[in-house]
Automatic annotation (TrEMBL):
InterPro entries: DUF2189. This is DUF2189 domain-containing protein. The chain crosses the membrane at residues 66-86, 92-112, 141-166, 186-217, 241-267. It comes from the Bacteria. It holds the Pfam family DUF2189. The lineage of its organism: Bacteria, Pseudomonadati, Pseudomonadota, Alphaproteobacteria, Rhodobacterales. The keyword Membrane applies. Signal peptide: none annotated. It comes from Meridianimarinicoccus marinus. Keywords: Membrane, Transmembrane, Transmembrane helix.
Amino acid sequence: MVKTIGNPLTWTADAAGAAGSHMAEAARRMGGRETEPPQVRQITYDDLLAALATGFEDFMALRSDVLALVVIYPLIGVMLALIAVNTELLPYLFPMASGFALVGPVAATGLYELSRRREAGEPTRWSDALTPLRSPSMAPILALGGLLMAIFVIWMLVAGMIWQITLGAQSPTEAGFLAQVLGTNAGWGMILLGIPVGAVFAALVLALAVVSVPLLVDRNTGLPMALVTSWRVTRTNPGPVLAWGAIVAGLLVLGSLPLFLGLIVVMPVLGHASWHLYRCAVAPR
């Protein structure tokens, strides 16, 4: 058969058809295949400690894999610190560092997969952390990552507004920054205003993501059902979920010292522990 060169209208129609097919496939993956909502269970404070203990066991068993996987986190932290110290972004150092917790649930996707495979008794290699990239749930995971990143950007904008309201009239310097923050009324005003506002952002992300990403790694539920399930877990267990958020925040602060190097241990332990907390909070199929 002789092939002919199509006209621009044909090319446009073909491109539109292909784009429509991709969008339909992406929409189908966003919705997932499972239609029955997962069963949510009550969890206790002891479950939080058990999840941390099991997460640490995963870290010890997979430490050669996990350390290679998460070493990027302290490197990013050091780079952010250097940028902040050497530019006018110094007031954003703490918001940027604390903002890691807002995108952490998606960043730990590979750790969830490693814990899932170890729990199931499957062979586990470093490359298995990339398995979710090939799963049908990758589209909703990326969409959730975009949502969390948008919340992070909004948090940075709000943090900038808080700085302008309190200490914005003073030009930050490396030597005098801590003195400005801790030694002036305006600095304490920024702290007293910024901490509760940041806690609101953290609580929002916690409610949306406490089990949503592990659920997407484990099942083809789709993004809407994963978000609803995460909210149901939070509503059913408000005390333990808030306590879990406090544990995560406290360990991230400890892991940031010195120079964010502690995140090499804290990040994988929290990632693995989050998987086991999900297994406690959501009943198996």
